[in-house]
Amino acid sequence: MAHEVDLESFKELERDIILRVLYRDQTVQSIEEERVRNLKTHLQHLRWKGAKSSSQEYKEKCCARCQQTLGLLLNRGAVCQGCSHRVCSECRVFLRKTHAWKCTVCFEDRNVKIKTGEWFFEERARKFPTAGRRETAGARLLQSYQRQSSKISVVPPTPPPLSESQCGGSPNRLQELGHFRGFNKSVENLFLSVTTQMRKLSKSQNDMTSEKHLLAMDPRQCMGHTERRSQSDTAVNVTSRKTSTPDILKAFHQEDPRHPPSPVLKQDTPPSSPTHSTVFSGGLRHGSLISVNSTCTEMGNFDNANVTGEIEFAIHYCVNSHSLEICIKTCKNLAYGEDKRRKCNPYVKTYLLPDRSSQGKRKTRVQKNTLDPTFEETLKYQVDPAQLATRRLQVSVWHLGTLARRVFLGEVILPLATWDFEGSAAQNARWYPLRAKAEKYEENIPQTNGELAVRAKLVLPVGPRMLQEAQEDQLALNGQLCLVVLGAKNLPVRSDGTLNSFVKGCLTLPDQQKLRVKSPVLKKQACPQWKHSFVFNGVSSSQLRQSTLELTVWDQAMFGMNDRLLGEAKLGSKGGAPGCTDSCSQSKLQWQKVLSSPNLWTDMTLILH
Positions of the region Disordered (predicted)? Predict the structure, then answer.
């Protein structure tokens, strides 16, 4: 194909047919160029929408795409690995079948390269840098025809009409547009690089302290760890980063080696006032930093001391308000939380097992430097009387050490099923010896988190004619599993006695395919009544006999925190809670009743675990 093609050797009819094909190919190329231009224009609009302009004032922390203000603790955003900009959760697009994500601009740039085929030419240019632009056979034929048109007295066929948008897609026009947009893109990247560099130079002393191990290394090595370059970064951005590293190192060595503690650690230490108070631990207090750190202690992130001493507390239940009150009196003969320093800062924390969430945690104030602390505080829970028999009270003593490090000093676990709340002697304060943390708590008491009322029905084709059609068509054998979630009661509520609850359903088929559904959220209700319908289509009776239906009740959290699981119930071949044979057998019987009675509603009351 190196030699030129001569159209003079063809006949007039053949030449007309070839020219029609060539002009049609040129039209298709114009349409394709218009499509590519529209994609790149849309991408450029996304970049301009999120670009920071010098004529506007932006806050110090905001999303680089939608300019939404970012928080200090919640919704702080994350840095995109493609462009190194911090974006909010709404401006992230997760890639298919992976946990990786990109911002909206990087994702759109990736789609443009895929749809236009630029990725192929970029990879080809990397492997063969000296290779020129690809020239098609159609372009060579047209050039040959135009050079020979002056010598051949042949009237070319009339090309098909082109629209104005297609005519605007000529190579010269595209080249001028490409240079213009390339210049705008370079200016935009240069301005964003300078803005990013100025923000980095204005970091606070605490940020530099937290990265001390990176700044103590060689500048080249430090740059290799911290620099995340964008594909659109210019040479000015790279040069400015290299020159700024010695300045940061120089500023770091000039500072005092004794760095003050972080403001987060100061806020993490609770006050130690010994005044008498009634603790209502809920709402914003459990969303604080100390609550997050204290919840980590339940996962083993703590130190142990030699457990000694006793704790005095009383338990009272108010039937009218459904309030369980634990009056923490005093402790004596506690072990040192820091044996070398002979120091102990004790406080008491309680849970109503099996609920170990932050909403179910109650704490007293911290007493400083004492082995015999006096608390005189009352911790309250909102518990239904029917749930007391399934709960266990866990009272544990902890030491708050340096840098908010927790040390376990002992605990007491009391089953409330055998507790006499009506007796006057039971309401008096008692002394309980502290014991070491149990590796595995006793499971002989069935743990329930309430009840869930549902109605279920398996819809199958009825009648001899429909059954005959179902045998002819395999798809007609599939029916519907209809489930109505009526309501729930005796759920573990918050400290204010309310819930923002919803229900999730998951039907696991024999081939491990999962069908998921979700109900709306009912806010500020302790006994929600959803009356919401779940419909699972395309399931047969034989599949359901080997399937498992899992229903979970959740409490919607606020401020972007994780939702709290209130309880779950399972129906099917693997139904029931682990370690509870009665519940397992009952769930299997209820599931068999639904399958054996098609087209009939079956009412069920499921125990949540």
Answer: 149-169, 224-284
**Joined tokens for residue 70:** 């970012």
Tokens of 420: 């006499």
Q: Answer left, alpha or beta for residue 367, where phi above 0 means left and psi between -120 and 50 means alpha.
A: beta
Rg of the chain's alpha carbons, rounded to an integer? 36
- How many of the other CB atoms lie within 10 Å of CB of 5? 15
Q: For 193, list phi and psi in degrees, rounded to 5.
A: -65, -40
Which DSSP letter does residue 435 get? B
CATH number of 265-433: 2.60.40.150
With H, G, I as helix, E, B as strand and everything else as coil, classify residue 572: strand
Bigger pLDDT: 344 vs 216:
344
φ, ψ of residue 347 in degrees (nearest 5): -150, 165
DSSP string for 515-554: EEEEPPPBPS-SS----EEEEEEEE-HHHHTT-EEEEEEE
- Torsion on CA atoms 502, 458, 490, 588, rounded to nearest 10: -120
Among the CATH numbers 3.40.50.1100, 1.10.3210.10, 2.60.40.150, 3.30.565.10, which is that of 451-607?
A: 2.60.40.150
Measured distance CA(209)–CA(325) in Å, rounded: 45
29 Cβ contact list (under 8 Å, min separation 6): none
Residue 232 to residues 48, 56, 282, 381, 544, Cα–Cα distance (Å): 14, 23, 48, 56, 54
Closest by Cα among 377, 394, 382, 375 to 317: 382
Interatomic CA distance for residues 564 and 569, integer angstroms: 15
Nearest 5°: CA angle at 77, between 71 and 80? Answer: 155
CA dist 321 and 283 (Å) reads 19
Q: What is the pLDDT of residue 45?
A: 80
Look up the pTM and report it. 0.40
- Residue 137: CB atoms within 10 A of its CB come to 11
Is the model's pLDDT at 404 over the cut of 60? yes
**Same CATH fold assignment for domains 7-169 and 451-607:** no
User: Quick one: pLDDT band at residue 40, thresholds 50, 70, 90?
Assistant: confident
Burial status of residue 348 (CB atoms within 10 A of its CB: 0-12, 13-18, 19 or more): buried
The domain over range 7-169 is classified in CATH as 3.30.40.10: yes
- The 10s digit of each residue's pLDDT in 20-30 is 898 889 889 88
Cα end-to-end distance, the chain, whole Å: 75
Domain ranges across the chain: 7-169, 184-254, 265-433, 451-607
Contact 242, 192 (CB under 8 A): no
CA angle 94, 106, 123 (to 5 degrees): 105
